Amino acid sequence: QVQLVESGGGLVQAGGSLRLSCVASGSIFSIAFMGWYRQAPGKQRELVAGITSGGSANYADSVKGRFTISRDNAKNPMYLQMNSLKPEDTAVFYCYAQDIYRADYWGQGTQVTVSS
């Protein structure tokens, strides 16, 4: 079992920056993939950025060049640095992990609101 706790959300003006953090606990040695999803009102949850156990990162086209995913040693904590934020980035952001047994884990979510 893996537990995930996010922090760092908040209200920011367009063009500003925020950094989200995700701390994993439990069987973190079994984590194969971690990522950040977001869900805006009335929209489906989407993958924003992900990072494999080998350190390879991928991004949604909408955030490339603006967001950076990273993690400290042993996959913990994981960060999402968000720069040049836009109102359309407003959403609840969720930390996600998948372990080597393909089990999915989610954090409780953190609200990011970007004002115009």
- What does the overall shape look like? globular
Q: Can you summarize the main beta sheet?
A: 7 strands, mixed
Instruction: Provide a count of the helices.
Output: 0
Give the beta-strand count.
Answer: 11
Element-by-element helix/strand order:
EEEEEEEEEEE
Relative strand content: over 45%
Q: Could you explain how this protein is built, in words?
A:
The protein has 116 residues and is mostly beta strands. Helices cover 0% and strands 57% of the residues. The protein has no helices and eleven strands. The chain has strands at residues 2-7, 10-13, 18-26, 31-39, 46-52, 57-59, 67-71, 78-82, 91-99, 104-106, 110-115. Strands 2, 4, 5, 6, 9, 10 and 11 form a seven-stranded mixed beta sheet that branches. A four-stranded antiparallel beta sheet has the order 1-3-8-7, with no helix packed on it. A hairpin with a 4-residue loop joins β5 and β6. The protein starts with a strand and ends with a strand. The model has no long low-confidence stretch (mean pLDDT 95).
Secondary structure elements and pairings:
Elements: E1 2-7, E2 10-13, E3 18-26, E4 31-39, E5 46-52, E6 57-59, E7 67-71, E8 78-82, E9 91-99, E10 104-106, E11 110-115
Parallel strand pairs: 2-11
Antiparallel strand pairs: 1-3, 3-8, 4-5, 4-9, 5-6, 7-8, 9-10, 9-11
Features:
about 55% strand, mainly beta, globular, 4-stranded antiparallel beta sheet, about 120 residues
